[in-house]
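Our platform keeps sequence and structure together, in a single record for each protein. Such a record has a labelled line for the sequence and another for the backbone structure tokens. This encoding replaces a full spatial description with a residue-level series of whole-number codes. Below, we set out a record of this kind in full and without editing:
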Amino acid sequence: MDSEATTPQSSSVASNSEVFLILNRFFRPPWLDSKEGDLYDFFKKKFGIRIGTIELYKEAFRHKSFSSPTNLGNNERLEFLGDAILSSCVSVILYTKYPEKTEGELTKLRSRIVNRKHLNQIAKELGLIKFIKHDERFNIGQTSVAGNTLEAVLGAIYLDHGYEKTETIIKEVILHNYSDLKKLEKTDENFKSILLEWSQSKGVSLSFDTKLKENSKKLFSSRVMIDNGEQGFGEGRSKKEAEQNAAKEALSLINKEAKPS
């Protein structure tokens, strides 16, 4: 009799829980303060997600320059996580989207998507900057703070919603809405950085032998050395230019070797 008497009550509790979840999905939770509520609305509008653990997202926007009386942590750990997830998701998306591209070409395009300049631009267009907490004496406008915060936000989304949802957001929001892949394919890039990323992925040593050319006071030459073997050569009016040109040639040679004959 006792168990039968409690059945309607259990059913009622379950029903109330379902109603709560539905309301929480479509409406701002009443326990959030105004700033947390603005953050909640922002993620629902921009990313189509409901914040589960608000503290994760507050941490994602907390720059290391921000000081608080309770010594709250900053967003560097979330940035580390988000950076890895972004690179992983972009790699899978590009691999699927461009079956004809070589490894070197995919690496180059991925580098253009995840570089700080591009991520800064996306973060600003999304409107992330208004939520970043930092020392007011620190001008974040001319730094990579916005792009770093975007990575921290992706880290928070991953912890709150999982890999699949994060990958969907990267694909549909970061790439589809805020990245022109055709334009990025044609954009000049930091070839030295791309080559460095490639060498690290392959586990090979990379160095540049750069020096002022003989009988010249204004022209530098540079050789790319991969596992102690020369893989590219370039010249320029500065060490940086010579190394960029050498890296560009090295990447070109790598791409040719990767293509089937």
User: Anything to note?
Assistant: The longest helix spans residues 2-26. The CA atoms of residues 218 and 240 lie 13 Å apart. The longest strand covers residues 229-236. The chain is about 60% helix and 10% strand.
